[in-house]
# Entry
Amino acid sequence: MKQHLRPIMFVGTCSDAGKSVINAAFCRIFKQDGYQPAPFKAQNMSLNSYSTPEGGEMGRAQVVQAEACGISPHTDMNPILLKPTNDKSSQVVLNGKPVGNMSAKDYFGIQSQKEELFKEAIKAFNRLEARYNPIVLEGAGSISELNLRDRDITNMRMAMAAGASTYLVADIDRGGVFGSVYGTIELLRPEERALMKGIIINKFRGDASLFDEGRNLLKELTGIPVVGVIPWFRDIKIEEEDSVALDMKNNTYKDGKINVAIILLKRMSNFTDFDVLEMDSRFNPYYTNNIDEIEKADIILLPGSKNTLSDLQSLRANGIATAIIRAYKAGKKVIGICGGYQMMGVRLEDPEGIEGNIPAIPGLGLLPQCTIIEQEKITRQSDFVFLPSSENKHCKGYEIHMGRTTLLNGSPEQPVARLEDGRTDGYYLDNRCWGSYMHGILDNPVVLDNLAEGFDTETTTAPFDYAAFKEEQYDKLAALVREHVDMEYIYNSIKN
# Structure
């Protein structure tokens, strides 16, 4: 039996420093070394979420890290999830279930409530630690936001409660790494600083030996060693958590590929549904709200949204809705997933004002259906057959939605999927127009092949195995981090 290790935690000088990816790397390293690790982040704010096998909802960053650990995701890995519904409020998901919407002022301002949430986070952590070894924790944003410190339930307060050996991740590509590291450490309380075991410099471009003097200077300034300098990489594909990652996805139309325009929504959720298209050489996906780029594409994909009616209203106001309809009439494929599927119907209604102050709005009119937004939130994993009238193989996906979609009177049932429990999902008008509630549907090779049907591409490939591809990426990431981090030092810091 492997020695029990102390928890380890990766915190940051800022948002998007690379904590999530480094956390995933260590999850895979510990798994490779014979341990049974599990990830943990007390509170996530993200529109990218996932349905667990038990039917709970959690942030996708910890799902990726669970995959790196080789274990099934569980809501204990992310007990509190905030899903922004507009600029001022979020849906609060506790232990996998929504418990209401709150403004940022109320969420951060009611101390008794934050204490209750922190207690729930500690309980979830303790349940995980009883089953796995070690727990690999992740912080959120910067750990030196002094105005939020007393209300913190994710960063150093969680590190102290867990007794975690803590490592500070700094993004050197942003510039100002000395000021950000020094300032972050200096602003910690003595008891917090005592947990800090090392500094990891991330996203370094060029010869890392050029930073040797920098290592020494940071050690002199902070008293904490730099235990790794991880190079900038683009050849390892790890799913990103934050929508800021979309800024790096700057593809445009490309000859010789199947060009896929993914409509850029203000409240877009689960953009990771489309990551697989970047890996399959047949496709050239790009995110856009430019009408010319939309109409040039071969395929238009409508993603999910946390505020479907508001996003549809914006599409109507800026002419994109008309462009999508025009593109379909011109022979282009239009596919919708979750909220995008709801938009493709004749009408959307929100009689209880669950999403906001728009009671109803006309849809795109591409599918013969109407959707009513309801309080009940569906969160479940699903095994299904794609296009059940065919001989297609079983597929996997997951549902996260609030809304009931029904066919218009007299419309025939033409489902995209038939689930194992007998339910049906989606509407398949024809090869050029269909929609589904199923997140992750494109991860199935048979669905990708259907998407590519009717196009000539420069390369012919075997069915793309996304699951095997992701396993290779986790191993490559682990190898890179091992090479550039002092693993002996890190193991010594977490041995009891």
In short: The first strand starts at residue 8 and ends at 12. The chain has two domains: 8-238+472-494, 257-457.
